[in-house]
Amino acid sequence: MLRIAHHPAYNHPVREGHRFPMVKYELIPQQLLREGMVSPAHFFQPELAERSVILLAHDAEYVDQLMDLTLDARMVRRIGFPLSQSLVERERYIVDGTVQASLHALQHGVAFNTAGGTHHAGRNFGEGFCLFNDQAVGAAYLIRHALVNRILIIDLDVHQGNGTAHIFADHDCIFTFSMHGEKNFPFIKERSHLDVGLPDGVDDRAYLILLREQLDALFASIRPDFVFYQAGVDVLATDKLGKLQLTGDGCRKRDELVFGYCKKYGVPVEVSMGGGYSVHIKDIVNAHVATFKAAIEVFGL
């Protein structure tokens, strides 16, 4: 049974005037239900992630300063949101959603978090609206509890997963792969195990050819027994921040490729939504919902 993490706190407007990017977390579940792809029984509500779990991927001093609301003002500016208890709790719900979704994926092949993909948060820093790195914590959790041996993190957000790369730079069992806009944020990038930087203006055909080549080599060489997929839809041509030229169809085929390789190699996958900043909210929601559709079709759910 497909399991999907969702919590009302995901929708919380963390900053005055910042409601638009957050409303997608409210609309994605509604659209999934409206189209009849899932029922309310498919959703589960995460809890607040425990400090001890967050510490699997983040430094104690940074975590404590966030949770105590004593983080340095310069770091708060780097994150981009004013620090508040509700913001920290929101991120803790997202982290637990991804951890629990990864456990469901081990059972059912694939599971989702309707939020997450907070890949700019590094071991001891937050950045780009990311406080805690949900997929990094999820990956560290699976390894710590000896539930899997080799993890591949596939990050296809238009922005490099610099925080994830920072956390796992010296890790032998967790391999980070980021395919992103080379000239896009963050402008000072960390080094993933594999980075593929794309020039501005890449279209569907070029993107999908390159992605297939990378996935073919990665699955054959790494032989992961678990995948975390950061499925940002800011690769769309309609995205205000993306600089790439993917269509909705191209974005859907991207998802089908990832899920197809997971299915072919028998690898469970947890999916977090990542970014999306198109002018029209329907373009963002439709692209995210298409990711769910692709998983349901590929895995025969």
TrEMBL record:
Residue ranges of the TM segments: none
InterPro entries found in the cross-reference section: HDAC_classIV, HDACs, His_deacetylse_dom, His_deacetylse_dom_sf, Ureohydrolase_dom_sf
GO-annotated molecular function: histone deacetylase activity; hydrolase activity
Organism: Sphingobacterium allocomposti
Record-linked Gene3D superfamilies: Histone deacetylase domain
Family of this protein: Belongs to the histone deacetylase family.
Any Gene Ontology biological process: epigenetic regulation of gene expression
Domain of life: Bacteria
Name of the featured protein: Acetoin utilization deacetylase AcuC-like enzyme
Record keywords, A-Z: Hydrolase
